[in-house]
Amino acid sequence: MRIRIVDAFADRPFAGNPAGVLLLDGDSFPAESWMQSVAMEVNHAETAFAHRLPAGGDADWALRWFTPVTEVAMCGHATLATAHVLRTTGAHEGPVRFATRSGVLVATPAEDGAITLDFPTAPLTPVAVPDGVAGALGAEPVAVLDTGANVGDLLVELADEKTVRGLAPDHKALAAYSARGIIATARADDPSGGYDYLSRCFFPNVGIDEDPVTGSAHTALAPHWSARLGRADLTGLQASGRTGLVRTGLRGERTLLTGRAVTVIEGELLA
């Protein structure tokens, strides 16, 4: 079985967020224990497993995502990576509909190689700043919002770009505050620099201290910053060590996430 490592939300190798991608033979998923073992072996934020569905249904491929320690309900970068593999290998042409735990998600490739994902917009609920979160994160929040069950994070707005870039959180302490983790964000100091807002994402509860570029987090970042900045279409920078840009388009209950991907490794899975 072929396995690929794809850098998603990147236009060059060794940037963005790497994901494992396996296009499975047959019409069903293998044992969860095997998929979890493969994801642990790949040891990237997520590994995606996809199999083809019968023609004529609501979706074209079934898709699941695993971190090194657990299955997750939503993942943007591994969905982008899977759509990229389907397109570049010729396994699927045009828009692809994925059946997932988060409903049917559509990925639409453009002629220039970019891919746009259609994801559900996260429902944001303002909450009081939890006791201790400032100390665990290492910065005082300006605002805190719950992102709902699908995303499973707290979105924490901070004072400025410098504060977000300088974070050195206590990852173990952060695990107490949400199902998955913390999205830390601020408005860009200089919007002429190519992005409107920036973020960093810390997910200790799914085995990822800091995720390089998180598509699902942008389903919460998009409505938050669109409300703040008064525009539906924005660009977010995830300021991890690898960095990546995500173009976001708020469309009511749906959020469009656009980015590029690059295959960096292709090989044979022998186990």
Task: Provide an overview of this structure.
The chain is an alpha+beta fold and 271 residues long. It has two domains: 2-119 and 257-268, Roll (Diaminopimelate Epimerase, Chain A, domain 1); 125-252, Diaminopimelate Epimerase, Chain A, domain 1, CATH 3.10.310.10. 19% of the residues lie in helices and 39% in strands. It has an 18-stranded mixed β-sheet that branches.
Task: Provide tags for this entry.
single chain; 271 residues; alpha+beta; Diaminopimelate Epimerase, Chain A, domain 1; 2 domains; 18-stranded mixed sheet; 18 strands; 39% strand; globular
The share of residues in helices is 10-25%
Mean pLDDT reading:
97
Main β-sheet description? 18 strands, mixed
User: From the structure provided, what is the oligomeric state, counting identical versus distinct chains?
Assistant: single chain
CATH architecture of the largest domain: Roll
Q: Structural class of the helix and strand makeup? A: alpha+beta
Q: Could you state the order of secondary-structure elements as H and E?
A: EEHEEEHEEEEHEEHHEEEHEEEE
* Helical stretch tally: 6
Whole-number count of domains: 2
Strand content: 35-45%
- Ends: how far apart? 9 Å
CATH homolog superfamily of the largest domain? Diaminopimelate Epimerase, Chain A, domain 1
Topology, number of strands: 18
